[in-house]
Amino acid sequence: MTWLKDVLGTEKAIIAMCHLMALPGDPYFDSEKGMDYVVEMARKDLKALQDGGVDAVMFSNEFSLPYLTEVKTETVAAMARIVGELKSDIEIPFGVNVLWDAKKSLDLAAATGALFVREIFTGVYASDFGLWNTNVGETVRHQQRIGAGHVKLLFNIVPEAAKYVADRDIESVAKSTVFNNRPDALCVSGLTAGAQTDSQILKRVKESVPETVVLANTGVRRENLVEQLSIADGAVVGTAFKVDGKFENHVDQARVKAFMDDVKAFRQR
């Protein structure tokens, strides 16, 4: 049994993404509609996800495109406001993800009471955002300094839109990440949000670190959930829950319910 049962309430857990609209300072922030509109859209998506039956939810600044690797204070402040205003509506375990800044994600978790964060904690990458470096030793020390030691760390080891600078196979990455950093979970992704995680890569990661929670991080849909959940311990799902399955749309509760009905049937096998 993994920590998923204790923290999220079930094995083969589905963590749903609540994608926040562009925030103050972001290129696509709608200053006319303002933050009140962003909060209300997040509330609408949260309700659709919860009513659809997901196991947990993760709030992320998904539309802060293009992303920063050192996120500005105004972004974290805006996210804290949103989660704070929604706190009384949150009925399931929740996490946060400040793209792509591990320390800021932990700051937000400490401020809001989030139970987990997903981030790029390790590695050096050539990415769409430039040369992308990390400092996991400093990050986990920061986690302890701010009293967030209980927050589960979900390590994304196949970053979207990026590739390791060194030529390392995925088994080596998984094994060394687990040995050196003791992550609570490893997340395996496709190229972008909504892109299917390669089942063979997922299988190779799980087989190389069988005692560690491994999550399919992108592209799980009704059509492939049996295949993916047969390998992974759970999944992070965003785009599949959107209207017409499109990344830029808001959540469709009917799609969420249909997906979760299939997941529950899979769990009972």
From TrEMBL:
Name under which the protein is recorded: SgcQ protein
Cleavable signal peptide: none
Species the sequence originates in: Paenibacillus paeoniae
Family, as annotated: Belongs to the BtpA family.
SUPFAM superfamilies reported in the protein's UniProt record: Ribulose-phoshate binding barrel
InterPro entries: BtpA, RibuloseP-bd_barrel
